[in-house]
Amino acid sequence: MLAGGGAAVRRRRRYTGTAPVQRPANSRCVAWSDGDAVNHVQGEKTVSRELLSVGLAGLVALSALGVSPPTRAENPTPYPDTVVTPTRHSYSALVERLDTAIQSNELGIVARASATLGAKSIGVEIPGNMVVMVFHPRYAVRMLAASVAAGIEAPIRFYITENDDGSATLTYRTPSSVFNPYENAELDAMAEELDASFARIAQQATAD
After folding, report:
1. How many whole angstroms separate alpha carbon 112 and alpha carbon 96?
2. CB 3 within 8 A of CB 38
3. Omega into 155 within 30° of 0, i.e. cis?
4. Which pLDDT value is given to residue 77?
5. Contact at 8 Å (CB) between 39 and 24?
6. Where are the beta strands (DSSP E) in 48-195?
7. pLDDT of 122-160, one tens digit each?
8. Torsion angle (degrees, nearest 10) of CA 27, 30, 36, 41
9. In the prediction, which pLDDT does 41 show?
10. How many CA atoms lie within 13 A of 137 on its CB side?
11. What is the DSSP pairing of strand 129-135 with strand 108-114?
């Protein structure tokens, strides 16, 4: 909105014969390409610098007192029905156990994505981190017959992360939570079957 309440538009206004607007003596007019103008008060930059200086000084004072500025807390499970299972197994052991459990439940590993190996390729060492993408052609056919749009959700992922103590955690979102937003009865029936399979896989992979 411009001074006086007029709405900003993208075309040049026609001259209406009205008297020119009187500008304060301590301001200057900056014309935009659409013919409108705004008032730019001199000294504004100086005030902004002063406010910035005060803000920085406040942060320095808090730091000197050992007080940290407030930070936004992380939500590690932002999606509903996310299953997180800490284990006593090492990262490499959990990767192998998950592979075995997937095969025993007649599902397949479509692909893997390892941030650990990616980081290593650029000379950086990070804790074990891998996404394992799981599905099967028989479910792909059913899914696409029910909803082509839902195809973006497959394959469904297991996530393996290495903890500070050397153990590993397995995380996944239930298939029903992935497909429920489509509000499709055939997808819901398929997801219910996958829920049972994923639960068995997780239990077998993480059991002591």
Report:
1. 13
2. yes
3. yes
4. 79
5. yes
6. 82-90, 108-114, 129-135, 156-162, 167-173
7. 999 999 999 999 999 999 999 999 999 999 999 999 999
8. -30
9. 41
10. 0
11. antiparallel
d(C-alpha 149, C-alpha 125), whole Å: 38
3-state secondary structure of 200: helix
d(CA 194, CA 179): 11
* Surface-to-core class of residue 32, CB atoms within 10 Å of its CB (0-12 exposed, 13-18 middle, 19+ buried): exposed
φ, ψ for residue 4 (rounded to 5)?
Answer: 95, -5
Q: Name residue 195's amino acid.
A: D
Residues with Cβ < 8 Å from 107, sequence gap 6 or more?
Answer: 134, 135, 136, 197, 201
The pLDDT of residue 70: 62
d(CA 187, CA 147): 8
Query: How is residue 9 written in tokens?
Result: 């538009």
Single-letter amino acid code for the residue at 158:
F
Single-letter amino acid code for the residue at 174? T
Calpha distance 126→162 (Å, rounded): 9
